[in-house]
């Protein structure tokens, strides 16, 4: 019985070392969600620049960037998506700006989801 347990020990230790080498799936999904939240915050910051909501969103985006572990090139790519989304013409039955709707559509859309999934996780900033 002890011999069997000792024989399995190297396999268990190798598996443990391998598990520590890569971040757990929950860490990756947490970072992906944080990146999506950054995109939403960045979108609101740009859309409402010069207003209290824009300033708050700018600070929030900064805090999320500090907590993230993607490289700056990832944030640059997402920023381009944000700006492209805000450049699209939006309207509705009530005249006025629909900037927040543009940001929400980006946040819930497949374009951002694809960009987040494709982002290199864990790149140095």
Approximate shape: globular
Q: Class in CATH?
A: Mainly Alpha
- CATH names the topology as Four Helix Bundle (Hemerythrin (Met), subunit A)
Number of helices: 6
The rounded distance between the terminal residues' Cα atoms is 50 Å
Unreliable spans = 4-20
Helix/strand/pairing category: mainly alpha
Largest sheet: none
Provide the number of structural domains. 1
Mean pLDDT: 85
Q: Care to describe what's here?
A:
The protein has 125 residues and is mainly alpha-helical. The protein has one domain: Four Helix Bundle (Hemerythrin (Met), subunit A), CATH 1.20.120. Helix content is 75%, strand content 0%. It contains 6 helices and no strands. The chain has helices at residues 2-21, 25-47, 52-67, 72-87, 99-108, 110-118. Helix 2 packs antiparallel against helix 3 (52-67) and helix 4 crosses helix 5 (99-108). The chain is globular and about 45 Å long. 21% of the residues are buried.
What is the compact description of this entry?
With 125 residues, the chain is an all-alpha fold. The chain contains 6 helices and no strands.
Features:
125 residues, mainly alpha, Four Helix Bundle (Hemerythrin (Met), subunit A), globular
List the helices and strands and how they pair.
Elements: H1 2-21, H2 25-47, H3 52-67, H4 72-87, H5 99-108, H6 110-118
Helix pairs in contact: 2-3, 2-4, 2-5, 2-6, 4-5
């Amino acid at each position: 019985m002890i011999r069997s347990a000792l024989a399995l020990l190297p396999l268990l230790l190798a598996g443990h070392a391998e598990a520590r080498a890569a971040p757990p799936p929950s860490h990756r999904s947490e970072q992906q969600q944080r990146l999506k939240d950054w995109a939403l915050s960045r979108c609101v910051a740009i859309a409402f620049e010069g207003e209290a909501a824009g300033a708050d969103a700018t600070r929030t985006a900064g805090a999320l960037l500090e907590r993230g572990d993607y490289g700056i090139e990832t944030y640059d790519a997402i920023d381009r998506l944000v700006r492209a989304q805000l450049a699209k013409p939006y309207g509705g039955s009530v005249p006025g700006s629909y900037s927040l709707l543009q940001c929400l559509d980006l946040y819930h859309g497949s374009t951002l989801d694809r960009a987040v999934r494709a982002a290199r996780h864990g790149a140095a900033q």
